[in-house]
Write a structure and sequence with these properties.
1% strand, mainly alpha, 14 helices, single chain, 76% helix, 321 residues, two-stranded antiparallel sheet
C-alpha cells in the first residue's frame, strides 16, 4: 500500500514540476533533475525548475506529511474523528509562536520553528486539559475546547498583526492562509527533519494507539503505558504541526481530510494509517499547491484556500454522519 502511494507521490511531484504559468518540457526537466547541464533547458527554465519549483514542491510534500500524520495521531489518541490540528487550535498556537518570532526575534531564523513548536505544544495541552472531565475527554468537549482556544489565539494573532507596520500586514495575512512561496533552505531542512522524526515516532507507537482507541482504561489493562504514550504522541504531533506552520503558515483541513480518506481505503490499523496518511498528505498538498499557482496564473492563491475548499465540505459531511 505504501509502495503504491509512494509511486503516486512521485508521479504527482514530477507532474507538478513541469506544470505552472511557465510550462517546462518533461524530458528536459527530468534530465536537469539528474544533475546534467546539457538538457535543452534555457537558463530561465532551469532556474524556474531548480530554484523556485523544486524547493517549493518539496516543502509542500513535507508540510502535507506533517499535517496528515499529526491529524491521524490526534484522531486515534483522542478517539475523535473530527480531531485535527486546525480545528483543535494547535495550528493557531503554532502560528502565534511563529508570528511572535517574526515580530520580536526576526534576526534569528531558528526562533520560528522553536516558538512554533512551543506554541503548538502549549495549545495541545491546553485543549486537552479544558476538554478533560470526569468521564474523560469526550468528542463534544474536545471540539468546544478547540473552538475556545482557536478563538482566543485568533485574537492574539490579530493583536500581533496590529502592532506590525502596514507594509508587512498583507504578506502576513497571505502567510496565515498558507503560503509556500517563501521557502528557504533552513526552513525546508527543518520541515523534512521534523516530518521524518515525527512520523517515525508516531509509527513506533502505532500499536499502542490501536489499543488506546478502545479507551484509556482498556488500553492500560492490556499493558499500554497510557501516560507515556499520550505524552510522546502529543509532543511528536506538536513537532509536526510546529514545523509545518513555521514553514508555510496555517494550511487547514489536511489533517482531517487525508486520514479519513486513508481509513476509508485501507482500514483503521494505525500501523498502516500513519505512514500511508503521511504519503497521501504529501500528495494532497502538492496537488493543492499546483492548483493554487495555476488557477489564476500568473497570480497565486493561498494553498490553504484550496485545501479548505476540499476539507470544509468533508467536515460538513462528517458532522452530518
Amino acid at each position: 500500500m505504501c509502495g503504491f502511494l509512494l509511486l503516486v507521490l512521485a508521479v504527482v511531484l514530477l507532474t507538478s514540476l513541469v506544470t505552472g504559468s511557465q510550462r517546462l518540457p518533461i524530458r528536459g526537466s527530468l534530465c536537469a533533475l539528474t544533475g546534467k547541464s546539457n538538457c535543452g533547458l534555457s537558463a530561465e527554465e532551469r532556474a524556474i525548475l531548480l530554484d523556485i519549483r523544486l524547493p517549493r514542491i518539496l516543502l509542500a510534500g513535507a508540510v502535507g506529511m506533517c499535517l496528515a500524520a499529526a491529524g491521524a495521531a490526534y484522531q486515534a489518541l483522542l478517539r475523535n474523528p473530527l480531531a485535527e490540528p486546525y480545528l483543535l487550535g494547535v495550528s493557531n498556537g503554532a502560528a502565534v509562536g511563529t508570528m511572535a518570532a517574526l515580530v520580536f526575534f526576526s534576526a534569528y531564523e531558528w526562533s520560528r520553528p522553536v516558538l512554533a513548536f512551543a506554541g503548538a505544544l502549549a495549545a495541545t495541552f491546553l485543549v486537552y486539559r479544558l476538554a478533560r472531565g470526569r468521564a474523560g475527554a469526550t468528542p463534544e468537549r474536545l471540539i468546544l475546547a478547540g473552538v475556545i482556544v482557536t478563538t482566543f489565539l485568533s485574537s492574539a494573532i490579530v493583536f500581533i498583526t496590529t502592532i506590525m507596520d502596514a507594509t508587512r500586514i498583507r504578506s502576513f495575512t497571505f502567510w496565515l492562509l498558507g503560503d509556500l512561496s517563501g521557502t528557504t533552505t533552513n526552513l525546508l531542512t527543518v520541515a523534512f527533519f521534523a516530518a521524518a522524526i515525527g512520523v517515525v515516532v508516531l509509527a513506533i507507537n502505532a500499536r499502542s494507539l490501536n489499543l488506546m482507541m478502545l479507551g484509556e482504561r482498556d488500553a492500560f489493562d492490556l499493558g499500554v503505558e497510557v501516560t507515556r504514550v499520550r505524552l510522546i504522541v502529543f509532543v511528536a504531533a506538536s513537532l509536526l504541526v510546529g514545523a509545518s506552520v513555521a514553514s508555510s503558515g496555517s494550511v487547514g483541513y489536511v489533517g482531517l481530510v487525508v486520514p479519513h480518506l486513508v481509513r476509508l481505503s485501507f482500514g483503521s490499523d494505525n500501523r498502516l494509517v500513519i505512514p500511508a496518511a503521511a504519503l497521501a498528505g504529501a500528495t494532497f498538498v502538492i496537488i493543492a499547491d499546483t492548483l493554487a499557482r495555476t488557477i489564476i496564473a500568473p497570480r497565486e492563491l493561498p494553498v490553504g484556500a484550496i485545501t479548505a475548499l476540499i476539507g470544509a465540505p468533508l467536515f460538513i459531511y462528517l458532522l452530518r454522519r
